[in-house]
Amino acid sequence: MASNGAAAGAARKKLNGYVGFANLPNQVHRKSVRKGFTFTCMVVGESGLGKSTLINTLFNTRLYARKEVPPPHAERPKTVAIESISADIEENGVRLKLTVVDTPGFGDFINNDDSWKPIVDNIESRFDAYLEQENRVNRAKLLDNRVHACIYFIQPTGHSLRPIDIEFMRRLHQKVNLIPVIAKSDTLTDDEILSFKQRVLNDIAHHRIEIFHAPVYDNEDEETIAENEEIIRKIPFAVVGSDQEIDTADGRRVRGRAYPWGVIEVDNEAHCDFVKLRQMLIRSHMEELKEHTHDALYEKYRSEKLVAMGVTQDQSVFKEVNPAAKMAEDRALHEAKLAKMENEMKLVFQQKVAEKEAKLKQSEEELYARHREMRDALEKQRMELEDKKRRLESGRPLTPEKQNQSYQQATKKKGGFLRN
Ligand code: GDP
């Protein structure tokens, strides 16, 4: 009898006739089509960089309604919000449940130091939800809401990455497949795009940030390998988004943006890298993105979390660590949490006191202003009375009209003053 280990060295045998397992890929294909696919993509970048437009352009659907531009003095939210939109889309009988996680508010504040935090929390809570399902007794159908790709929109400044970009990528690169794109690249010339891309790549390498690269496998055909290498060369993709169709000078109808000097075509590789981004994200590497999320990113998170919970792995056997040490560690964690909460409360208190002080100062200034106003009005009234007195004393009686006029002025001022 063959031992279990014999499989590794299994000899190649020739078949004497058709057996049928060559049909396995078709079986997998049919099953996947029946089940449908899911994909969750996050978009991050300051408002107005074209995130919703690009998502609509990528999936060729109005996933996002046209956004209302808020009036200039409208109250803005004070934190980064996380919003997700899902849609069931279908192409040639293949169904895809697409979820887009938007992060409005990112980078929009005066102080953006912690803009990355709600985003990391959101990604981790999705990992936690998956881990919780895996730990259930019945785990027949796992719902995968993990973020499979994060498109990070870089402002088309033409300089280099800003501190907020670096901070965000550093915090996120080991939790999500990062896909940096240069937003609104139609605002830069070809040369500017080339040098900007190089600087962005240098910054990414300098800060040891890992971004998603389409993997190149040796056993694939030459054409696929060449395509993948071409995709890699375009990173960070310089994109242009538009869900409008426009007529070109040569009579074609294209998705693009019209300028006095011509039309920038979204789907034209000579104009921007939109096609390459779509190729990687949807047409060739969606499954790779999901696999890397599961096998590398989630796996890292899961094992770190289990280790933090006191579970260690010893040659594939899980065993509990010393309970006393575990309790001490738990207590330390709890105390650290309490200290953090206390700190946060202190900060909130200080902020509230500062706000109250500012309000009091403003009321004080208003009172002073009112006081000055009243004093000036009284002074004016006093001068007028003095003047009247002088006239009376000098024996020049006022004419009846003058008397009436000055009486009316005095009562008007008094009344006005009292009303105030
Ligand atoms: P979001 O706030 O990041 O979702 O940005 P929107 O998608 O709402 O776009 C903001 C504005 O930029 C809109 O007026 C879009 O028409 C415009 N826009 C979107 N994509 C591009 C682009 O690639 N180039 C240029 N020049 N403008 C764009």
UniProtKB/TrEMBL annotation:
<dbReference type="InterPro" id="IPR030379">
    <property type="entry name" value="G_SEPTIN_dom"/>
</dbReference>
<feature type="region of interest" description="Disordered">
    <location>
        <begin position="372"/>
        <end position="420"/>
    </location>
</feature>
<feature type="compositionally biased region" description="Basic residues">
    <location>
        <begin position="411"/>
        <end position="420"/>
    </location>
</feature>
<dbReference type="Pfam" id="PF00735">
    <property type="entry name" value="Septin"/>
</dbReference>
<dbReference type="GO" id="GO:0005525">
    <property type="term" value="F:GTP binding"/>
</dbReference>
<keyword id="KW-0547">Nucleotide-binding</keyword>
<feature type="compositionally biased region" description="Polar residues">
    <location>
        <begin position="401"/>
        <end position="410"/>
    </location>
</feature>
<protein>
    <submittedName>
        <fullName>Putative cell division control protein CDC3</fullName>
    </submittedName>
</protein>
<dbReference type="GO" id="GO:0051301">
    <property type="term" value="P:cell division"/>
</dbReference>
<keyword id="KW-0132">Cell division</keyword>
<keyword id="KW-0131">Cell cycle</keyword>
<feature type="domain" description="Septin-type G">
    <location>
        <begin position="35"/>
        <end position="308"/>
    </location>
</feature>
<dbReference type="InterPro" id="IPR016491">
    <property type="entry name" value="Septin"/>
</dbReference>
<dbReference type="GO" id="GO:0005938">
    <property type="term" value="C:cell cortex"/>
</dbReference>
<dbReference type="GO" id="GO:0032156">
    <property type="term" value="C:septin cytoskeleton"/>
</dbReference>
<dbReference type="InterPro" id="IPR027417">
    <property type="entry name" value="P-loop_NTPase"/>
</dbReference>
<feature type="compositionally biased region" description="Basic and acidic residues">
    <location>
        <begin position="372"/>
        <end position="394"/>
    </location>
</feature>
<comment type="similarity">
    <text>Belongs to the TRAFAC class TrmE-Era-EngA-EngB-Septin-like GTPase superfamily. Septin GTPase family.</text>
</comment>
<keyword id="KW-0342">GTP-binding</keyword>
